[in-house]
Amino acid sequence: MRKENFMGLENPGTAIITGASSGFGNLFAKRLSDQGFDLIITARRKARLEALAKELSEKNSTIVEVIVGDLTKMEDINKLAARVKEIDNLDCLINNAGVGTGEDFLKPDANLDEYLNMINLHCKAPMVVTHAALAGMIKRDRGLVMNISSIASLILHGSHEPIYNSTKSFLSVFTEMIQLKLNATKSKVKMKAICPGFTITEMTQYADKSDTKRYSAWDTADDVVDHALDNYNNKDIIIISGKHFPEEVKNWRKIARTKPGRYFYF
Questions:
Q1: Residue 246's pLDDT is what?
Q2: Residue 113: inside a domain, yes or no?
Q3: How many domains does the chain have?
Q4: Span 47-80, pLDDT tens digits
């Protein structure tokens, strides 16, 4: 027996998940398959996508379409957007694909191509694919676009990776602004930006874990995915996951006006 879907839909349609070969994307695909959604999953790693599609098809009889692509490339971004426009029952788009980098922006020989790819993946791809998805969702007056952002989009101090924070900040603000425009038209379509703190995933397996007290508070990917789905019905656009990160954001906001180089006029 299938579980009730998180959107409360009588007949759930199709969900698209980018970056579905591992981490959050893989778990979102499994949760939504269990809840009766058909899926379009995309990532670069074909073998992993095909294995996931086979697993979910056999388990839940889910119709799973695999699109192999690299969303750092405009050609593949446009290809996915074109496919999105063809779907007449799109209920959920999860822009999950993301990347980190070990580059140092201040080094003269920094590989700027890595940063440009990050901008494409975190900014251009969600913008283009969201635009493609919203046309049908607005017409049907139902649907959700969930952008997987980061706590880094909200806390700007202590950053060792300015481009990552900057691109994730774009993603969070983009989500908020689109929701405000939807609200102005009385649309029922929802936008959510999920902002996990430190999370144990394949992407963070090499992160510095020397601060054992802080590391003990890291979320699991399952925690983040469940939190994201459980918060669908609340009015918040920005969803922060983590045991201590909401308080950290509040503290940063309190001291923001005293930071050098920040000026506020009232």
A1: 66
A2: yes
A3: 1
A4: 999 999 999 999 999 999 999 999 999 999 999 9
- The label of the residue with tokens 């980061």 reads 150
Q: Taking the model in full, what pTM does it have?
A: 0.89
Q: DSSP alpha helices (H): ranges in 35-161?
A: 46-60, 74-85, 112-119, 125-140
Measured distance CA(118)–CA(166) in Å, rounded: 10
Q: How far is it, in rounded angstroms, from Cα 104 to Cα 201? A: 22
Question: What is the residue range of 65's domain?
Answer: 14-258
Per-residue pLDDT, averaged over 196-215, amounts to 56
Domain with residue 239: its CATH number is 3.40.50.720
Nearest to 137 by CA among 167, 181, 172: 181
Chain-wide mean pLDDT for the chain? Answer: 88
* Sheet arrangement for strand 144-148: 64-68, 38-43, 14-18, 90-95, 144-148, 190-196, 238-241
